[in-house]
Design brief:
Distance between the termini: 42 Å
Shape: globular
Number of helices: 17
Strand content: 5-15%
Number of strands: 13
Radius of gyration: 22 Å
Structural class: alpha/beta
Helix content: 40-55%
Largest sheet: 5 strands, mixed
Strand order of the largest sheet: 8-7-13-10-11
Amino acid sequence: MEEMRILLRNKDKIDPKNVQDYIQTGGYEALKKALSMDGQEIINLLKEAGLRGRGGAGFPTHMKLQFAKNAQDDTKYVVCNADEGEPGTNKDRVLMSADPNSIFEGMAIAAKAIDSHKGFIYLRAEYTYIRPLLEDALENARLAGCLGKNILGSGYDFDIELHSGAGAYVCGEETALFESIEGRRGEPRFRPPFPGSKGLFGKPTVLNNVETLANIPPILRHGAEWYRGIGSPNSPGTKLFTVCGNVSRRGVYEFPMGVNLKEIIYDVCGGIPDGKGLLAVQTGGSSGAIINADQIDLPLDIDHVSASGGRLGCGTIFVIDDTNCIVDIVRNNLDFFRSESCGKCTPCREGGTRLYELICKISENRGTVHDIDTIIDLASTMRIAALCGLGHSTAVPVLTSLQNFADVYTHHIDKDCCPVCGQMQ
């Protein structure tokens, strides 16, 4: 199965720091077109194209822009979330390393849509090696007149500031990210007000991740009808998938939305190595649903994955072979989430730790049937009551693993032989 490279069209073909290389491939033509358009025309085009966010719940991109455009304020911001803290995810790193100008162009178009003149890229702390590349690319784009004052001779001003995080997973949440840029501890804010009316520095703000912003220039260049012709009816376009875990060929791949998960695992990535069998797949990173081997005939678009109990999210596909124990996988997930909780809200701060303790108890063969009931109640409460997505997501692998691997939990509780790891627990 061949990839469909739209976002990765320039990977390994251009010098990512050289803006002239990008321009020669048609770069900044979309921005030139956008600068001649009214902001509402840009938003309407993205609405017609059906672009949805590529990092979370798939929120329509045009709606974020519309909220900020409608806000009455002379100062507005466009923010690129390049924090990419989800374990196993590398697609934004690949985009930034291979084609940073596509991100700058997407930010500039979004800025024109809402009448913003300042943007921020919030870069993951661990991506220290990418920062010099982005700095050079930004400066070269300014020297070429694509950023800064009077961009492309249009009379419109827009520039981008680069800001590095400090290594907190919670800063992938938009309001915690704002707090970090403003120099405070990264903690989510209570909402409302929402970022579209009061975001960064209290001003109307549009925040999207790297991949979402990189989708904007191709839509402006080729049109909404072209974009609608790719992917699924409710999830148009392509998606970047980071395939990791127990597969023969790991990597970042680009396919139309709706590509079949089973085909990616076996046709694209060569299946499970060393003659082992498939146990499970976790979609959307560590915060995603864990499904079993019988459920992988699944179209990978936003709505189908949501219907499976998880979310497409960042597009990570974590493949787990049959030498692993699902209870141990969930315990590892919870250990990560409890350590990354900012502690601001009780459901996440206390609930994450309590879930971890209960799963450890079951893993160590000290659990009871009553513990399962407690886990379900606690995880369900966290999905409703936690302040931000970290607390909501912590519950997803727990609840889906209980639903799809109930027998494994039962064997641990009964102090029987675990059918997955094959060891007496």
